[in-house]
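sorry for the late reply, my laptop died twice this morning and i had to redo everyting from scratch. anyway the thing you sent over, i finally got around to it. pasting the sequence first so we're on the same page, its 333 residues, then the predicted structure underneath. double check i copied it right bc i was rushing
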Amino acid sequence: MTTSISLAVAAFITAFIAFPTAAKEPSPSRLRYAPDGSILAASARGRPGIILYDAKTLERLTGLDEKGSPIGDIDFGADARTLATGAGDRVRVWDLDTFQEIAVFPEEPGTITSIAYSHTGSLLAAGNFRGTLQVWNARQSQLLWTYNKRGPFSVEAVAFSPDERRIAFLLDDTYLRVWDVATQEQKALFRGDLAATLAFSPDGRVLAAGSQRTLAGKPEYAARLWDIASGAQIGYLPGHTDRIESINFSADGSLLVTAGRDSTVRLWAWDSGQPVAVFRGHQAPVGTAAFSPDDLTIASVDWQGQILLWDWNQASTAVEPTSWGTIKNTPDR
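ok and here's the structure:
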């Protein structure tokens, strides 16, 4: 895929997530594409419920768990027919053909903050705000191992490497850990003001995370990238003016998309360190931005529950959307 951008303005589609009243404990806004690209699952900050959308039109398909606890995180299984949701101190798995709950993974006491399936869907990881990370055999609902960080630390993000041999997790002690899934041995430790989000490149060789630090008395927010084999930092991408909440690679690995509390979505050619485009359209902090599986679209969701779909190939280097469609969703009856 080329990273060149035509000098046209990006078209986008917008929808607002129609959720019940916000709960007491705020949680991030999350958004995930199904592996086949057909469905978008989204949650709004601090509110219960997952809304499923047609990924092309943002037509509302249905809602799940809309009367439960606020959603901490969501992830699709490998077959695109199962969806895991973390809410309260439980991870629930849903069958998307019947929209019924088919499994519950009991967690350690503590609100779920992050979950992730492995590439084949055979493993499921969940972290909570008390610093506990658990890894499960997802097919047999069997707990494999537990990591527990002593102290008041939250697991902010977790991800499996594409080959499922490694798991990376980020706590709010600002350390990014990489463990061997089978032996439970720590293989790498990346230090330095890391926060909120992480992602493996599709080939599993690069790890990216959000960073925030103070330079000359001023905060600086950036995406940082490391070569996993050597441990060397190979990329530093400043530009956001507030904390980065989301970081994801394109399917071909050439691009990186970040989203943050400055209400922007930013596109990067990470290997050269060059910004490609800035997407401006959200009026609230952006919780997640992600590429569609075919890399043709970027979807983003903000703390107010607005979803935007961006045709990034038609974007100028500074994107100001000028056309949109609003889809009004009504609750299931």
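The CA atoms of residues 127 and 133 lie 4 Å apart.
thats about all i looked at so far, will dig more tmrw
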